[in-house]
UniProtKB/TrEMBL annotation:
Catalysed transformations (reactions): Release of an N-terminal amino acid, Xaa-|-Yaa- from a peptide, amide or arylamide. Xaa is preferably Ala, but may be most amino acids including Pro (slow action). When a terminal hydrophobic residue is followed by a prolyl residue, the two may be released as an intact Xaa-Pro dipeptide
Cleavable signal peptide: none
Pfam family, one: DUF3458
Domain Peptidase M1 alanyl aminopeptidase C-terminal: 547-870
GO molecular function terms noted in the UniProt entry: alanyl aminopeptidase activity; metallopeptidase activity; zinc ion binding
CDD domains: M1_APN
Enzyme class: hydrolase
Cofactor(s) for this UniProt protein: Zn(2+)
Function: Aminopeptidase N is involved in the degradation of intracellular peptides generated by protein breakdown during normal growth as well as in response to nutrient starvation.
Record's protein name: Aminopeptidase N
InterPro entries given in the database record: Aminopeptidase_N-like_N, Aminopeptidase_N-like_N_sf, PepN_Ig-like_sf, Peptidase_M1, Peptidase_M1_dom, Peptidase_M1_pepN, Peptidase_M1_pepN_C, Peptidase_M1_pepN_C_sf
Residue intervals of the Peptidase M1 membrane alanine aminopeptidase domain: 232-446
Domain Peptidase M1 alanyl aminopeptidase Ig-like fold: 451-544
Length: 871
C-alpha cells in the first residue's frame, strides 16, 4: 500500500510472456487462522518470447508469506531467488520444470475482497484483475493460460460445500473431521478466472439441455435463509443459455454451471469458469424484498456473466488494455438479451440515459480514457463506464454498420479463429473486416480516442427542386494526453418526417469526414429530421429544433427512442431557460405547450405505460449537470423542482387517472408489461405527492401498507420518508426498519432512501446512520448505499458551499483506503469532477483532493485517481 508513486504500465510496452504454465495444481488447506496453499506449476519457456534465457519472474503480493519453494523437487534457499515489491525472481532455471511453492494466507484478515477472503463465514475468491497473485506466485496475466486442478481441504461441519472450477473428480474424508474435494477444469484459462468457495451453503438445482443434447447441471448456492430468492436467477440463467444458442450459436462447454451468492463483493459479479461468484444484490430476487429494477438487474447480470463464457473465457484478453474486448462485447450481448426479454425501446432508453449521465461525465473528467486505454497505474480503476458502456456502444455501431447477419458471421469467425486464445480488440475488428470486406481502420479510432464526439447538424430545403440537404459536422473535445482528435466513422440512422407526422424517408448514413453533406431527392415537403435514431452512435447531437418540431416528433416519430428523446430535448431546453431565470432573479414559468403535450400523452390510453413513464420523467439533476457549462447546483435543483411541481399541479387529475388505471390487483410478476404499469403508477404517485395536497400523502401511505411487493412499497416509502410530515415519516422509517432489519439488501434501500433525503440536515443524518448497527463499513454494498447515495443522489447537500460534504467524503476515503482500496477509489469519483463547478466549490473539492495527496500511505488505486484529478 505504501507506494507513493506507483508504476505506470503502457500498452506499447507489451511483450509476450517469457514463460508458459501448461498445468497448475493447487491444494488449499483452509483453516480458521490461516490457509496454506501448495501450488505446483508445470513451466516451459515460451518459444514465442522475444528474449530467450530470461529469469523466471512471477507476481506475488507482498502480504503473502512464502513458506517453501522448490524446483523439480530441489528446495531453493533464500539466496536462490529474490523477492521484491510484488515480484519473485529466480535466475538460472531450466527450460522445462516444475515449480512448487507453499504460501500462507490470512483470509479472515483480508478486507480488500481481492484474492482469498471470507464473506459471512464462507471462503471465496476474487481474482480479476490481479487477485490471483495474492494467493500464490504466478505469471498473473491473462495471456498465460493454464489447465487447473484444485484440491480443497476443510472442516466438514463448517464447510460442507467445497467448490472450484470445472468438474469434481475425487473426494474423501480424513479422520480429523476434515474432508476434501478435487476439481479439474479441462479448459485452459488465465489465472483471473480461477475461483474457489468453501462454506455451509444451500443449493437450488436445475438442469439445462443444450441444443446438441448435452445435459448441464445448474446449481445456485446461497446462505440457507436466501434459498427462497434464487428462482428468478435460475430462470434467467436458462433463458440466457437458450438465447446464446439461438442468437450466437454458442453452447455451454462444461457439465456443471455454478453460481454462488456472497454478501461482501466489490463489484456486481464475476464470470469465473464454471463457478460464477455474485454479489447477493445481483442474484437474490423475491417479490417481497426486490424491486422491479432489482429483478431486471439480476436477469441482466446473470446473463452477462453467462455470456462471458464465450466472450471472455473461451476467447480472452491478451492484456488488460483489451478489457473492453470482453466487457464491451458482453455488455452489448446482455443488453440485446434484456431487450429481447423485455421492452427493447425502454431498455435502450435506460442504457442511453446511463451513458449520457455517467459515461459522458467520465469522458469530460480528468479520468477520461479511451475504450482501449494506453496506460494505467492500477487496472482496477479501468473497470469503467467507458470500457463497459461506451465499449458496448462501439460493438453496437459495428452491428449497425454491418447489419445483423454479417455481424453474426463476424462473431462466428472471431470465436472460430481465436478459440482458446488471448487476443486484442484489433482481432475482434479484423474478424468483422473479413466477413464484410470493409476497411474498418478509421472505425478503430473509437477504441483509441477518448472524449464524446459532437455532431452539429444543419439543413436546407429547396421546395422547387424537392431537394433536402443535411450538413453534418463532427468534432471531439481534447482529453488528457489527446489534444487533437481525428474524425470518427459512425452510423447515423435517420428519418425525415413531414409536419403532419408522415415518414418521408428512413435510412442509415455513414459519416467519415469532418464535414459531410447528404442530399435527398424527391422530398415533396419540408421535413423535420429525426436524427440518430435509436442512438445509433454515442455522440452529442446538436440541431436547432423548434419547440413545435420537437412536439411533432414526440407525437409521431416511428422510432420509439427518438420519440422519447424529442420530449427530453424539449424538457432540457425549458429547464435550462428556468435555470437562467432563477439566476437572473426572475420568476420561473412552466410552458403551457409542455403541459398540453404531457396532457395528451397521459390521455392516450393506447400508449404503452412503460414508454409513457419514460416520457413523463424529467431529466435528472445529474444529467442536467453533465449538460451544464458550469454546474450550478442550486439553479439545477430549483428549476427542476419548479417544473416538477408545476407539472404535478397542472395535471393532477391526469396523474390520478394514470395511477388508478395502473393500480390493478394482479399478482406480482416482473414481466415487462407489469413493470411498465408499476413504473407509471409510482411516477404518477410521485407527482401527486409533489402537489403537496393532503390526500396524496395518505394515498402513498395506503399504498405502503397494502402493497404486496417491494417496488410499490419502496416507492411509497421514499415519498413519505422525504415528506415534510415528519411524524408519518418517522413512523414509516421505524416500521420499515422493524419489518426488514434482517434482510440485508432491503436495509441497503433503507439507508439509500435516507441518504438521498433532500431536506435540511442531510449530512447530520448520514453521519448518524454510519453509526447504526445495520451499517457495516467492511461491506461494499453498505458503503454504496450510504456514502454513494449521499454523494451521487443528494447534490444539494453533498455540494454544500462550506465544503462539509466533501470533507466528509474525503475522511471516508482515507479510512477506507486502508481497508479496501478498490472501493475507496470508486467512491472518490464525485470529487474528480471538481473543474465543472463554480470556483468556490471547485476550490473546496481541490482542498480535499490535496489533503488526500498529502497522505503518505495511499494505495495505488487512490493515488492514481487523486493525482490525475489534480493534474
Ligand atoms: N468481470 C466482472 C464483470 O463481469 C467484473 C468484476 C467482478 C471485477 N469483480 C471484480 C473487476 C473485481 C475488478 C475487480 O464485469
Ligand atoms: Zn463483465
Amino acid at each position: 500500500m505504501s507506494v507513493k508513486q506507483p508504476n505506470t504500465i503502457y500498452l506499447e510496452d507489451y511483450q509476450p510472456p517469457a514463460w508458459l504454465i501448461s498445468h497448475t495444481k493447487l491444494r488449499f488447506e483452509l483453516e480458521e487462522e490461516q490457509t496454506l496453499v501448495r501450488a505446483q506449476l508445470s513451466i516451459q519457456s515460451n518459444p514465442a518470447a522475444r528474449d530467450k534465457r530470461m529469469p523466471l519472474e512471477l507476481f506475488g503480493d507482498e502480504g503473502m508469506e512464502l513458506c517453501r519453494l522448490s524446483i523439480d523437487g530441489q528446495i531453493l534457499e533464500a539466496c536462490d531467488y529474490q523477492r521484491e515489491a510484488g515480484y519473485l525472481r529466480i535466475n538460472n532455471v531450466p527450460d522445462t520444470f516444475v515449480l512448487e511453492c507453499v504460501t500462507r494466507l490470512l483470509p479472515h484478515e483480508n478486507t480488500t475482497l481481492e484474492g482469498l477472503y471470507k464473506s459471512d463465514g464462507m471462503f471465496c475468491t476474487q481474482c480479476e484483475a490481479e487477485g490471483f497473485r495474492r494467493i500464490t506466485f504466478f505469471p498473473d496475466r491473462p495471456d498465460v493460460m493454464s489447465v487447473f486442478s484444485t484440491t480443497l481441504v476443510a472442516d466438514k461441519c463448517l464447510y460442507p460445500v467445497l467448490l472450484s472450477n470445472g468438474n469434481p473428480v475425487d473426494s474423501g474424508e480424513d479422520d480429523d473431521g476434515r474432508h476434501w474435494v478435487t476439481w479439474d477444469d479441462p479448459w485452459p484459462k488465465p489465472s483471473y478466472l480461477f475461483a474457489l468457495v468453501a462454506g455451509d451453503l444451500a443449493l437450488l438445482e436445475d438442469s439445462f439441455t443444450t441444443l446438441s443434447g448435452r445435459e448441464v447441471a445448474l446449481r445456485i448456492y446461497a446462505e440457507r435463509k436466501d434459498l427462497d430468492k434464487l428462482d428468478y436467477a435460475m430462470q434467467s440463467l436458462k433463458n440466457a443459455m437458450r438465447w446464446d444458442e439461438e442468437v450466437y450459436g454458442r453452447e455451454y462447454d462444461l457439465d456443471i454451471y455454478m453460481i454462488v451468492a456472497v454478501d461482501f463483493f466489490n463489484m456486481g459479479a464475476m464470470e469465473n469458469k464454471g463457478l460464477n461468484i455474485f454479489n447477493t444484490s445481483c442474484v437474490l430476487a423475491h417479490p417481497l424484498t426486490t424491486t422491479d429494477q432489482g429483478f431486471q438487474r439480476v436477469e441482466a447480470v446473470v446473463a452477462h456473466e453467462y455470456f462471458h463464457n464465450w466472450s471472455g473465457n473461451r476467447v480472452t484478453c491478451r492484456d488488460w488494455f483489451q478489457l473492453s474486448l470482453k466487457e464491451g462485447f458482453t455488455v452489448f450481448r446482455d443488453a440485446e438479451f434484456s431487450a429481447d426479454m423485455n421492452s427493447r425501446t425502454v431498455k435502450r432508453i435506460e442504457d442511453v440515459t446511463l451513458l449520457r449521465t455517467a459515461q459522458f461525465a467520465e469522458d469530460s473528467s480528468p479520468m477520461a480514457h479511451p475504450v482501449r486505454p494506453e496506460s494505467y497505474m492500477e487496472i482496477s480503476n479501468f473497470y469503467t463506464l467507458t470500457v463497459y458502456e461506451k465499449g458496448a456502444e462501439v460493438v453496437r455501431m459495428l452491428h449497425t454498420l454491418l447489419g445483423a447477419e454479417l455481424f453474426r458471421q463476424g462473431s462466428d469467425l472471431y470465436f472460430e479463429r481465436h478459440d482458446g486464445q488471448a487476443v486484442t480488440t484489433d482481432d475482434f475488428v479484423a474478424a468483422m473486416e473479413t466477413v464484410s470486406g470493409r476497411d474498418l481502420t478509421q472505425f478503430k479510432r473509437w477504441y483509441s480516442q477518448a472524449g464524446t464526439p459532437r455532431l452539429q447538424v444543419s439543413d436546407q430545403y429547396d421546395a422547387r427542386a424537392c431537394e433536402y440537404r443535411l450538413t453534418v459536422r463532427q468534432s471531439c473535445p481534447p482529453s488528457p494526453g489527446q489534444d487533437h482528435k481525428q474524425p470518427y466513422h459512425l452510423p447515423l440512422a435517420l428519418g425525415l418526417v413531414a409536419e403532419d407526422g408522415t415518414e418521408l424517408y428512413a435510412g442509415l448514413l455513414e459519416l467519415t469526414g469532418e464535414e459531410q453533406e447528404f442530399c435527398f431527392d424527391n422530398i415533396k415537403q419540408c421535413p423535420v429530421p429525426s436524427l440518430l435514431r435509436g442512438f445509433s452512435a454515442p455522440v452529442k447531437l446538436e440541431y436547432d429544433y423548434s419547440d413545435a418540431q420537437l412536439l411533432m416528433l414526440l407525437r409521431h416519430d416511428t422510432d420509439g427512442f427518438n420519440r422519447w428523446d424529442a420530449g427530453q430535448r424539449l424538457s432540457i431546453r425549458l429547464l435550462q431557460e428556468q435555470m437562467q431565470r432563477y439566476r437572473d432573479g426572475q420568476p420561473m414559468v412552466c410552458s403551457e405547450a409542455l403541459i398540453e403535450a404531457w396532457r395528451q400523452l397521459l390521455n392516450d390510453t393506447a400508449l404503452d405505460p412503460a414508454m409513457l413513464a419514460q416520457c413523463l420523467r424529467l431529466p435528472s439533476e445529474a444529467q442536467l449537470s453533465e449538460l451544464a457549462e458550469q454546474i450550478d447546483v442550486a439553479a439545477i435543483h430549483a428549476a427542476r423542482e419548479f417544473m416538477r411541481t408545476s407539472l404535478a399541479a397542472a395535471l393532477e387529475q391526469e396523474w390520478l387517472q394514470a395511477y388508478q388505471r395502473c393500480d390493478t390487483n394482479e399478482l406480482y410478476a416482473p414481466d415487462a408489461d407489469a413493470v411498465g404499469r408499476r413504473s407509471l403508477k409510482n411516477l404518477a404517485l410521485a407527482y401527486l405527492v409533489a402537489t403537496e395536497r393532503e390526500p396524496w400523502l395518505a394515498l402513498a401511505r395506503q399504498q405502503y401498507q397494502q402493497s404486496d411487493n417491494m417496488t410499490d412499497q419502496l416507492a411509497a416509502f421514499a415519498l413519505v420518508a422525504h415528506s415534510d410530515d415528519r411524524e408519518t415519516a418517522e413512523e414509516l422509517l421505524q416500521a420499515f426498519y422493524q419489518q426488514w432489519q434482517h434482510e440485508s439488501l432491503v436495509m441497503n434501500q433503507w439507508l439509500s432512501v435516507q441518504a438521498s433525503d433532500p431536506r435540511d440536515g442531510a449530512l447530520e443524518r448520514v453521519v448518524a446512520l454510519a453509526q447504526h448497527p445495520v451499517f457495516d463499513m467492511r461491506n461494499p454494498n453498505k458503503l454504496r448505499a450510504l456514502i454513494g447515495a449521499f454523494c451521487g443522489q443528494n447534490a444539494q447537500h453533498f455540494h454544500a458551499e462550506d465544503g462539509s460534504g466533501y470533507a466528509w467524503l474525503a475522511g471516508w476515503i482515507l479510512q477506507l483506503d486502508q481497508q479496501n482500496p478498490q472501493i475507496a477509489a470508486r467512491l472518490l469519483t464525485p470529487l474528480t469532477r471538481w473543474k465543472r463547478y463554480d470556483p468556490v466549490r471547485a476550490g473546496q473539492m481541490q482542498v480535499q483532493l490535496q489533503r488526500m495527496m498529502d497522505t503518505t500511505e495511499l494505495s495505488a488505486d487512490v493515488y492514481e485517481v487523486v493525482s490525475k484529478s489534480l493534474m
